[in-house]
Amino acid sequence: MDLPEWRDNHGQLHLCIGVRDSALVGGGIVAPLTTSNPVLAIVVGIVWLIADVITSSAIQLAAQWQRAVIFRLGKFKDIRGPGLFFIIPVIEQVRMIDTRVLAVHIPKQQVITRDNVPVTIDAALFFRVVNPADAIIMVQDYRNIILQYAQTSLRDVIGQGTLDQLLTEREQIAKAIEAHVERDTKGWGLDVTGLRIQDVDMPEELKKMMSRQASAEREKRATITKAEGDKEASVNLAAAARTMAESHGAMQLRTLQTIDGLGASPSNTVVIAVPVELMDVWAKLDRSASIGRASVAEPAPRA
Prior knowledge:
The chain has 10 helices and 8 strands. It is α+β, with helices and mostly antiparallel strands. It has 3 domains: about 10-95, no CATH class; about 100-205, Band 7 domain (Tetrahydropterin Synthase, Chain A), CATH 3.30.479.30; about 245-285, no CATH class. The strands form 3 sheets. Strands 3-2-5 form a 3-stranded antiparallel β-sheet. A hairpin with a 2-residue loop joins strand 2 and strand 3. Helix 1 (about 10-30) packs antiparallel against helix 3 (about 40-60) and helix 5 (about 140-160) crosses helix 7 (about 170-185). The longest helix has about 45 residues, at about 205-245. The protein is rod-shaped, with a radius of gyration of 46 Å. The protein starts with 8 loop residues before the first helix and ends in a 6-residue tail after the last helix. The model is unreliable at about 1-20 (pLDDT under 50).
């Protein structure tokens, strides 16, 4: 007779107390007979013991998360629980099934990706029993068989993708493996609630190559960013030069501002060897010469 898989200590304690109380009652009945009729006392004690064992085995208790699959003479009868229920001893057998979400660890698997990269992957599969009768009748050990299906599905799905897909699309790959397992175990009374890839291990040489590639990619982005900054700076400098060329005295003010920045510290002394007025006169002469060259280069109008 299969007894329930007791995980509730209080329920087990109550059952033990009931058996103990029944034994005490039987002892109270047999004790007076031992002096008057010892043979009758022995017969009554044996009968009471057999009845006590049969009664205790007929009383079953299933917890809130358990379901009892009843077999009568080897044939499926019904599903009972949760709570207290009775069975026919010897004729009926009970299999207790846990209907909570169960976790199965998928051990590390050596897989070759589509681009011929060896990786080692482990994962965790979460499922629950939704039909206890099918989970017992259709398969021998649903925990072990769903683990085997999960291992083969993991190898099949990851072997169809590349290493980059494995690293960047981990959630989509986990959903694909979950769909494979759920399709293969359909009709067994099991519901796959999720699958999570825990770790992806690669050879050390490949890790170093990926690290160098990432470093080169970051250096490339930094060089591009610096070049774009230099380009924008040159455009702004050209615009500033045009503005200062069009504005009278702008270059002179910029020169004085630069000189003032050089002599901001008391330890620095700036000496201007050429008067600023002379520089202004030189700029005027340069503009006059430019205008003269432009007028000479103009062709004479036709008569």
